[in-house]
Structure formats: structure tokens, C-alpha cells
What we know:
Shape: globular
Oligomer: single chain
Distance between the termini: 57 Å
Largest sheet: 7 strands, antiparallel
Order of helices and strands: HHEHEEEEEEH
Helix content: 25-40%
Number of helices: 4
Number of strands: 7
Structural class: alpha+beta
Radius of gyration: 18 Å
Amino acid sequence: MTKLLRLLVAPLSAVLLLTTVFSAPARADTDPVLAAEWQIAWNTYRFYECLTAPLPITGRGQAKRDVSIEIDAPVEHVFDAYSNINNHLGAHSFLQRVVTHADWTDAGTRHVNFTAVENIPVAGLPVTVNTHAQQRVHRDALYYETDTWTLPNVVTHQKIVFQDLGDGRTRVTEHLTFEASILLLDFTVTNGVSSHQATQAGLKAAIESGDL
């Protein structure tokens, strides 16, 4: 009985959190507020870690998807343009601004802690959502990782790999892992994949046109 209650309560709590977030008035958070929110997210869920898939008894599930695109540009140029999160502004209509909290390099790996502020349409109305993230850029190996946390405890783990196809062409493959309440997982995956595909298309157009 205790296990059954935990299974029922966990997704219900997530839905209540989601309702709270979606019913709250949109606000323009100041950078210090976003930095504090980022730290709380970090302390609550070390979202850069993905050791095992969540157990069903916790009321959470995990799904993996891959999305890929080919870009007519040399791999080094594509990597530099694509891995700069600020270049994602304008590539997708949801993303409004990016606030960087920390940016440092350790043992050849660049780390960037940031918050992406997005306006996501829900029932036809824009809702402001803050996605807290850490990016780790491995330029020498031509890949980077980005892990994110968004209320209500929605986590994504991303590994973006760049492959030189020759003749000045590059394939970008995003390996995506989504974690959320089992009641929200399908919604999270559908919207997450759609958002990443739209961003890929926007970055491809900007790189191939010479804007990036």
C-alpha cells in the first residue's frame, strides 16, 4: 500500500507544480533572481548527473530520442556557431533570452552555467518558463553536453555530436534523454523533440546563409 501511495502521489505532485507554474503570471526575472533559481535547481537536483534511469515506483520515467541534421559548412565552423547558446536566440520563437551565470574552462573543457528564458504557448497563452542548464563543451572532440532542469522537475540530458562528412558538410546529431513524471513524459518528449528540431532548422539556415 505504501508503494502504491508513493506511485500515485509523485505524479500528482508534479501535476500540481505544473499547474502552479502555468497559472502564475509571467514576470521578467532579474539576473540575480535567475542566478538564485539556478543554484536552487542545482542543489535540489544535480542535473548534470545521469547515473541510472528513474525507477517507475518514483512516479518518473525516462525516454531517449535522437534528432539529426546536415549542414553545408565545415565542421569546425558549425561547431563554434552551434555550441554558442547565444546563437540559439532567433533560431526558435520560444527562446527569449539567455542569462549566463558562470563561464570557465577546466582541463580543456569549457563549462557554462546559464538560464534560458522561454515563452511557451499553453492553451493558446504564452507562459514564461525558466530552464536552468549547465553546458560542457569539448571542442577538441567535437561534441558538447547540456543538461537542463525545469519545473516541475523536468530534466533533459543532451549530447550533441558533430561529424565531418567531407566536402565542407557536417552532420549534427543530438542524443536526447528526457526525465519527467510519467504523466508528463509524453508531453515533454513531443514538445522537446519539436523544439530541438526547430532550433536545428534555424541554426542550419543561419549558418548556411552566412549570418552565423
